[in-house]
Amino acid sequence: MAFLTEPYQLLQAECRQRNVTLVAVSKTKPIRDIEEAYALDHRDFGENYVQELLEKQAQLPSDIRWHFIGHLQKNKVKYIAPFVHLIHGVDSLGLLQEIQKQGLKLQRRIDCLLQRHIAKEETKFGLDEQELQQILDQVHQQPNAFASVQIRGLMGMASFTHNQQRIRSEFESLSQEFHKIQSGLLPGHDFSILSMGMSADYAVAMDCGSTLIRVGSKLFGERSYPAHSS
Ligand SMILES: *Cc1c(COP(=O)(O)O)cnc(C)c1O
Fold this sequence. Notes:
Blueprint: H1 5-18, E1 21-25, H2 31-39, E2 44-47, H3 50-59, E3 65-68, H4 77-80, E4 86-90, H5 93-106, E5 110-116, H6 129-141, E6 149-156, H7 164-184, E7 193-195, H8 202-207, E8 212-215, H9 217-220
Parallel strand pairs: 1-2, 1-8, 2-3, 3-4, 4-5, 5-6, 6-7
Residues 25, 27, 48, 69-70, 157, 198-200, 214-218, 227-228 line the site of pyridoxal-5'-phosphate.
């Protein structure tokens, strides 16, 4: 399956119009599919697996903006820290501290999103409201201890369901939380990214105020192995 040019152009036009960033999720897809998208001037790509990302990054142009959207283990931060554009799935203080440590070593401020658990399913990663607040408090109280990370916003995944109303209410509550934080907090952090919406639910997500959507199968065709493992 090749990169699907027509769906891409339609979706990209819609995103530009709404000022939404389109991240093309290329996990499990071959290099040549990414090259096809790159040839259309696409630069934002999302990957879930560290090993796969490293292999692709080494073979592709250096102006690609790589988004790490999977569950990130602390011991693997060091491999992607030198080049990653945005880490979407920060789901613990320990992980944020490790990213800080690697950023400091590299003299590089690494952009992160805090992942909020909004779905009903137990299987999805993410922080609950209280855990999120604890991290924000820490960063707020000890800016020097987090000077090599920048909290750019929130990321969330809705429940895997056909119930549109439920998806909408999950996205709406995340959006409200995002705006509450945005208005209150974190001097020195450009807190402006709300990453929500995938192939099946990006339209609802954009309606609810998403500023970045992560779209895979709609652009690259169906994948042959699971979407949400580490
Ligand atoms: C795989 C994945 C996507 C893209 O999923 P599609 O349904 O193929 O668009 C988006 N976000 C995350 C976190 C993913 O793991």
